[in-house]
Amino acid sequence: MDVWGFTVVGYLMSLLGAASGGPPCVALVGLDLQRSVGWSTGSVAAVQALYADPASAATDVAALQQWVDRGVRPASAMLVTGSCQVASGEGAVVRLEVVDRLAPTIAVDALGQATSLPVDSWSGRQVVLQQVDGAWRYAEVTTRP
Question: Domains, the chain, ranges and CATH?
């Protein structure tokens, strides 16, 4: 299966993992897919647009910019959601408890050479989503101990 096949499988698995968490969890999977496309194309602007404000995007944008500066892009950097639950909030701001991992990913250099990246293990995150102009955006993402 090629890397985009892994993206589709990861997206479908994520929807299954998020479905019991309700609409904010499904929205998270959609954001993660858009983020994957931004990372895979090296589009800092596309990734930054997924965040509620520039400060909340800073870590993700800086990491992507490092890849871009080296002339490398991680193709299909899709997060696979194993579980997602609304921890608090309702309305325009919600805090989610998420367990996810990076799907199989390859790094492609400027010459088109592909290298498989190490397989990620499951890890926990707290994700705060905020509605901005009627669309969910990442407001805060932290690693859960």
Answer: 3-143 (3.10.450.50)
DSSP state of 122: P
Cβ-based burial of 110 (10 A; exposed 0-12, middle 13-18, buried ≥19): exposed
| Averaged pLDDT of the chain | 87
The conformation of residue 107, written as its DSSP 8-state character, comes to E
Could you tell me the two tokens for 79?
């997060």
What is the token pair recorded at 68?
């871009």
Question: pTM for this structure?
Answer: 0.85
Using CA atoms, how far residue 117 sits from 53, 57, 66, 137, 139, in Å, is: 30, 23, 16, 27, 28
Q: pLDDT category, 64, cuts 50, 70, 90?
A: very high
